[in-house]
Each structure stands twice: as structure tokens, then as C-alpha cells.
Amino acid sequence: MxxxxxxxxxxPRYGMIGGYFExxxxxxxxxxxxxxxxxxxxxxxxxxxxxxxxxxxxxxYFQEEKAIDVSVLVDLKVVSGYKIKGDYIDYLIKAxxxxxxxxxxxxxxxxxxxxxxxxxxxxxxxYAISYTDRNxxxxxxx
Length: 142
Hints:
Elements: E1 2-6, H1 17-29, E2 40-48, E3 59-62, E4 67-75, H2 76-79, H3 85-100, H4 113-130
Parallel strand pairs: 1-2, 2-4
Antiparallel strand pairs: 3-4
Helix pairs in contact: 1-4, 3-4
């Protein structure tokens, strides 16, 4: 399974709080198979203020490309109040979980969305526990 993360004009990188999570998630899933109908999931990360910007939810399957496009919305007001990196990671995991739980709505034949969800729960649980910067203050708000 190929996992892509699309957010802004830069790919995920280890220097970003969420970058660690996104890169490690892609590595975790790269050798997994959930059926022939879906070979790629494109997560689009959006950090927005929902009071100002009304963003249309994205959850779509492209049969020809064998890909799912999904938006993960991060509430700017919520995350800007976080003081330590672990709080942001917990929020990010919750946002991903909400969207991944909806994959079954797409009703894709020959795609095991339940197994994908279980594997994500395994990955995110292990990641949350092992995240070494969990209690590090968030100081760089660029």
C-alpha cells in the first residue's frame, strides 16, 4: 500500500511535528496489501479555521487509479493552543482515525478497509507510545 501525504507546497519532513508521523506511517504501510482495488491512499492535510474557511470534506475513490483521496482537517484554533508536541500528535491520530473509519462508506470491492483500520490503530498506538518528543514544548510556530 502506498501512502502519500499532501499538505501545502512541501512534502513531509522529519523536522515538522506531523512530518515524523507521516513519514513513519508511509514506511509502516509500504509492504502491506489490502486487496487489488486500492493500491494508494492520498491524505491531504489542511490546517484551517473552520469559522473562517468552509472546506468541503474529501473522501473519494478513483477506480482507474486504484486510489483513495481523503482530506484530514486540522482545526487551527485547537492546535495553536497546544504547548507540547504529544498533544498535537494525539490530535493528529484522532483526525486520521475519524477519516479512516469512513473508508467503508466508499464500498470498494476487494479492499479490506477493516484490516487497514486495524493496522492504522496498531501503527498509531505504537507511534504515540514511542514518540520521543512527546513532552517537548512546541516553540517553533512558523
